[in-house]
């Protein structure tokens, strides 16, 4: 596979050979560079059912009696670039009882659980600063690439300005039980000053709910379509609380990420297994990789992905993600999030750290619309606190830097 040239930062996304052992959608492969096919390639595809995904990328459905890897080898011998249609998954900490869809924890009184994470990232100070400048804590348009967002949740009233769905049949249908997408959207933009539940990092502004994760996850083609649609609709920030361990060799998604990063700040959860290195797409050089700190800022959460010997890609930033099942964890050390059915629950994971970073990036781009995606990313990452030897999100410093 050839490297994909990076975005504004001038980095190169080095994409290795596709990993056919990684989770992927069976019965089809992705073809890259299909906008200019040689005659031999066209002949090889004769009789093969294909479907456009994005510019230069098509799905090719594996003929009956042939496995995907064998089909890909045949296509590659004809001069085509072929790879799996990888499956990505949401990154809430699966072992935590507070994660929606698990056993759950009692949340009798929402008021008994405060959003301490907002204080830890200095969001109130950022809000006060913006108000002092005559601005409200409004978000630039932000896309939530995730499972289905419950737009009718009382704490999302007026926030979800649009939606799109790109689930393939293999995604298992809409995920209506875990509330993962609803939780991610709420952390960025739960309605504030509405007398209900929780406050989002941003008080107002449009959210675009892009459904790319179903009950069985989401594929490369789902994510690529979601990224392209987000850019088409003019979003300024894209949150991706999803990923796949390791480096799957996903050139198709790398191409979509590089393209999207030209206009949008890309933020992704780093992953929830400490020994596997930073997950993909967080490890893409154009993406902000977000790790999680737990009940205090002295150490990374036990589950949070971090650099490993095999995969040394560093975290760009960390934010509170809840204690999960770490030693000493209690209900009070988790993250208060929106739950399906208009409720609230507790959860943990880098899935819930990433939206805090996305929310701050959205505040920055609204406070100073002249900032490019690259400038926003640089000022966000250049104005941080320190936690566990990692750069800790500092909303106040980042907002001030954005308005200078």
Automatic annotation (TrEMBL):
UniProt keyword annotation of Hydrolase present: yes
Active-site residues (renumbered): 146 (charge relay system), 180 (charge relay system), 351 (charge relay system)
Superkingdom as given in the UniProt entry: Bacteria
SUPFAM superfamilies with a match to the protein in the record: Subtilisin-like
A Pfam family annotated for this UniProt entry: Peptidase_S8
InterPro entries from the UniProt entry: Peptidase_S8/S53_dom (IPR000209), Peptidase_S8/S53_dom_sf (IPR036852), Peptidase_S8_Ser-AS (IPR023828), Peptidase_S8_subtilisin-like (IPR050131), Peptidase_S8_subtilisin-rel (IPR015500)
Domain Peptidase S8/S53: 142-384
Keywords: Hydrolase, Protease, Serine protease
Keyword flag Protease: yes
Protein name: S8 family serine peptidase
Family of the protein in this entry: Belongs to the peptidase S8 family.
């Amino acid at each position: 596979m050839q490297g994909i040239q990076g975005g504004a930062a001038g980095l190169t996304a080095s994409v290795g050979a596709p990993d056919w052992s990684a989770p992927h959608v069976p019965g089809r492969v992705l073809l890259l560079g299909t906008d200019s096919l040689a005659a031999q390639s066209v002949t090889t595809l004769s009789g093969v059912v294909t479907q456009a995904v994005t510019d230069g990328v098509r799905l090719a459905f594996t003929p009956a009696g042939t496995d995907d890897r064998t089909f890909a080898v045949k296509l590659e011998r004809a001069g085509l670039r072929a790879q799996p249609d990888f499956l990505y998954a949401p990154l809430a900490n699966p072992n935590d009882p507070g994660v929606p869809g698990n056993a759950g924890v009692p949340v009798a009184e929402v008021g008994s659980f405060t959003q301490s994470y907002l204080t830890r990232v200095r969001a109130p100070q950022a809000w006060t600063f913006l108000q002092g400048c005559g601005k409200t804590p409004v978000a630039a348009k932000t896309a939530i690439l995730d499972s289905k967002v419950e737009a009718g949740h009382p704490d999302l009233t007026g926030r979800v300005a649009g939606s799109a769905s790109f689930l393939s049949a293999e995604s298992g249908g809409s995920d209506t039980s875990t509330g993962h997408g609803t939780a991610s959207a709420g952390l960025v933009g739960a309605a504030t000053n509405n007398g209900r539940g929780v406050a989002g990092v941003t008080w107002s502004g449009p959210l675009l709910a892009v459904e790319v994760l179903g009950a069985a996850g989401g594929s490369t083609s789902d994510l690529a379509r979601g990224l392209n649609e987000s850019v088409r609709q003019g979003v300024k920030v894209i949150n991706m609380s999803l990923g796949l361990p390791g480096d799957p060799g996903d050139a198709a998604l790398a191409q979509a990420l590089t393209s999207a990063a030209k206009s949008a700040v890309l933020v992704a959860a780093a992953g929830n297994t400490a020994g596997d290195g930073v997950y993909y797409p967080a490890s893409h050089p154009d993406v902000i990789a977000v790790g999680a700190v737990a009940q205090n800022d002295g150490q990374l959460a036990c589950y949070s992905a971090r650099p490993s010997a095999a995969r040394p890609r560093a975290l760009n930033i960390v934010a509170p993600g809840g204690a999960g099942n770490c030693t000493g964890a209690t209900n009070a050390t988790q993250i208060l999030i929106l739950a399906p059915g208009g409720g609230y629950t507790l959860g943990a994971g880098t899935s819930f750290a990433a939206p805090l970073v996305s929310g701050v990036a959205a505040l920055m781009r609204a406070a100073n619309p002249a900032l490019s995606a690259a400038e926003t990313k640089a000022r966000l990452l250049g104005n941080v606190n320190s936690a566990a030897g990692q750069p800790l999100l500092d909303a106040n410093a980042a907002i001030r830097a954005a308005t200078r």
